[in-house]
Amino acid sequence: MSKNNKILLIGILLITIIIGIGFIPAMHQEGHDPETETSQEIQTIYDSLKYEKSIHVLAMLLLGFGFLMVFIRKHGFSSVTATFLVVSISLPLYMLIKTYTGDEFSITNIDSFILAEFAAASLLIAIGAPLGRLKMDQYILLAILFIPAYILNEWIILESGMFTGFVDVGGSVVIHAFGAYFGLGVVANTMSKFENQPECENNSLSNQFCIVGSMVLWIFWPSFTSALVAPGEVVITAINTIFALCGATLATYVFTRLMRGKIEIEDIANAALAGGVAIGSVCNTTTPGYAILIGVVAGAVSTIGYTVIAPKVEKLIRGTDTCGVHNLHGMPGVIGGIFGIFISGAAGIQIGGIVVTVVIAFVFGKITGIIVRLLGQKEIPYSDEDEFITSH
Amino acid sequence: MSKNNKILLIGILLITIIIGIGFIPAMHQEGHDPETETSQEIQTIYDSLKYEKSIHVLAMLLLGFGFLMVFIRKHGFSSVTATFLVVSISLPLYMLIKTYTGDEFSITNIDSFILAEFAAASLLIAIGAPLGRLKMDQYILLAILFIPAYILNEWIILESGMFTGFVDVGGSVVIHAFGAYFGLGVVANTMSKFENQPECENNSLSNQFCIVGSMVLWIFWPSFTSALVAPGEVVITAINTIFALCGATLATYVFTRLMRGKIEIEDIANAALAGGVAIGSVCNTTTPGYAILIGVVAGAVSTIGYTVIAPKVEKLIRGTDTCGVHNLHGMPGVIGGIFGIFISGAAGIQIGGIVVTVVIAFVFGKITGIIVRLLGQKEIPYSDEDEFITSH
Amino acid sequence: MSKNNKILLIGILLITIIIGIGFIPAMHQEGHDPETETSQEIQTIYDSLKYEKSIHVLAMLLLGFGFLMVFIRKHGFSSVTATFLVVSISLPLYMLIKTYTGDEFSITNIDSFILAEFAAASLLIAIGAPLGRLKMDQYILLAILFIPAYILNEWIILESGMFTGFVDVGGSVVIHAFGAYFGLGVVANTMSKFENQPECENNSLSNQFCIVGSMVLWIFWPSFTSALVAPGEVVITAINTIFALCGATLATYVFTRLMRGKIEIEDIANAALAGGVAIGSVCNTTTPGYAILIGVVAGAVSTIGYTVIAPKVEKLIRGTDTCGVHNLHGMPGVIGGIFGIFISGAAGIQIGGIVVTVVIAFVFGKITGIIVRLLGQKEIPYSDEDEFITSH
Hints:
Three copies of one chain form a homotrimer. By secondary structure, chain A is mostly helical. The first copy, chain A, is built from 14 helices and no strands. The first copy, chain A, has helices spanning about 5-25, 40-70, 75-100, 110-130, 135-160, 170-185, 205-225, 235-260, 265-270, 275-280, 290-315, 325-345, 345-370, 385. In chain A, helix 11 (about 290-315) crosses helix 12 (about 325-345). The longest helix of chain A is centred in the last third of the chain and has 30 residues, at about 290-315. Chain A is globular, with a radius of gyration of 20 Å. Chains in contact: A-B, A-C, B-C. Chains A and B meet through helix 2, helix 7, helix 8 and helix 11 of A and helix 1, helix 2, helix 3 and helix 7 of B.
């Protein structure tokens, strides 16, 4: 191993230790939200119920996103290890920064942890675009640069007061679209010899793992959207989310066959989830019937994205979107944001918030891409052999 | 793609949209059960706790049944896609029909959603019999025909008053036996050249996925049986269910070796679950010791089913039961129903309910099989190549 | 099948039935802890919340430990079947023995079931050491011998009053270290021709299953540590646990590369979990910053264990530790116990408890190993072909 590599590794270890030490003086910030009128006992129960959902979201982060990204041939170990690493760095990093910058942020509050998970989800979406083009140290660096940008956008849209009335409880815009356009920013202008983009190798067993990831996301998506809604809204939010997923799954099946003649398992694994992305903005305010229809639109658009739009986008930004995050999270996220207009009635604020999010995401993604490539750039996609011991 | 195919696909899209639109006028039916005396806050908490179980059941539907059915060689994509599709069509369809026919059914109630999941579980059991003999459009059509029949039987047994006192809280009869005998009805009289029935290919990795599905079902089965019991009965129901699964798992191990000399992994993956099927009827009223004994009986009968009884049943109905649903859900479901006599003491009602369920399931399954085959029938089992893009 | 084999199998069936019958007279012991002052309704809700965690722990037992052990080439069916069997025998056996020996133990109490799951977890850790050296009947016999030893140690350390003040709420010592040193006891002095120890075959898909197991353990670990803490401590316990896992994951990445030059996926799958092991003793009393630092230490020690210490330990005990349970559960468990000194301040009691646990575990493991080998010993590792039907 080169000396540079060793320095990098020791740097990562030091950053981890510094994050740990950084939390120690912050502990006095403890304490629950004083405004609540429910008794301590009921509050404890509500927190425990949110805890259950936070574990569901954790399953989405690791098993869900992790295995949805193993479809690339000979890149399975890299995908799951990258997932482990970016989750492990981003959860505490988000909470550390917010502890020192957020007014009412307590590191021992379950809401804070769920917000950190949302940031990690957005980050995992972002790395889907350059997946296979980066080595492990670069994923970690990308994570460290992503989190402050995500917190900035979260503050501008949801906390600064600039976009009061912006509707996005399940994160269609600030989580999904932000992650997708950040990822597109990272890969923009990197097109070189990557013509033979690794495709979903659907004749091998590795695609079965991709389906495991997809199903884990589908199953726990209702906990993602309902994690931070009021206790009385959990059930309706969950049913709306499931109905949107049902609509998207059926539309994906219809459109994958109409567009391609046969079924592409990659479409089923991905576009079926677009309903969950799009319902995010209105998940607690719409009704099941509309939820199905939103899901149908999202599934159809996403499938058309994978079949028709993706090549054009890749040409436009001059970069390869390995996991098709623009199709699954970008467009459906924006669609979800637009559906929010029907709820809030405030088209200007809703569209403004979407545009600002997309711009911030893409610009910071672009800058991050330039910095990350200082650690090296490879002409052909990475395979597990590059960084893993694969011969015993 | 043929014109007929396109019409079918657009038909499926329209049905999805119609289901969505169908819900819209129904929203005024909202509101919780007014009879409850618990406060609104406690009711909200109970609903959230049921929501957790509904997600566990969702995991059983997709990851559990989906991957338990991937054991057929070169049929993995078809199995998981069929699972996705029939779940996505049956959940909203069940809730839509019940909204317009059920007296106290509210689409925003968590109990309603769990009942819809039970219907989807029964449907997934049913498609286990013809698995590998149908194409995707046929699975969807089967789902659309299954749900009304399931609702009819559910009404006759549990709501009409004809079988007052029938004991089946965990669905041994109305979910498991109904699904199994419906599936057997679908395949009855289809035996032609299917002599070389695809077997569990247990020398390949695909069987490991089968075990993942089996374990997901085992783990979350306590949430299936306890999803709709009274809050105070959740723990005893869960412990009874787990003890029944333990008894069945150990009995399956003993009987697979006694009957075959060696261990058949297919038996372990399937018959170990028979305890969960059989305990359903008495899961909240028996005690852990009896639960183990019920599990031992169910595991033994199921294993004997796979080794000895299955070929005779297939000859009798002149059809192939691909997943052996008769062994896992049919016989153990009926056994569970019979155990219910010890609880209710009303042998006549219990046996009557079982017989009516089996007859309705088989007859409607038979009719459904005839209708489904109007869309085409293949002489040899389907493989993924028939409907999926498998070469890149 | 030989006559001896049949007698063994029928013996296992009889033991199962006896366990079932053994519970029947015990049912009068029912009833909740009378000391609680919370109302019945709130108590029911707390129990339901604990039930959710017990299902998470069940997922760790089957999917987690089961698939973490499938990395051995051609031993996948054996690993998962052994997991199914030892879980199925140990859960009811633990509860049966405790019902007749424990003062306040009720078989219908959720706490009792979670304690049984902890025993099963410790047992699964123990069989990781001899994995691949035993046949199915031997795993079952090992389970039957393990449980009384585990209960004895649990009583001495936590209930007898000999070690009042011993800090170990998440089981670093009594669950993890006990299981690991019991397993090392089983394999001690068995070294013969096992020079070609089966290695993690990380160029095959079977390792992806290993990662699934690892992720399931990572995701649900917070429910393991928080399962029995006071309701108000659930959130802080969970956040501490996750932060410890984050620290261990990052440290594992750094140390696997520093020690080996490249990344060993086996290290990532295992050592990343060492943070969860080590945090156990102080999971509800420390703060997130210290939790990260404990995780870093545990991950680093565990990775160094896999790379440097393991060969020396195997030479010392003259036996092969197939899964490296000493690296993942033994050393991190002891480290966790030592961290407990900073909380309790009682170094003597803490160190005394650790030493007693290690000695009891190793001695009873040694005795168990001798008894288990009476059923036969094989010179080369087992493969699935020995006991499973693998050709169709």
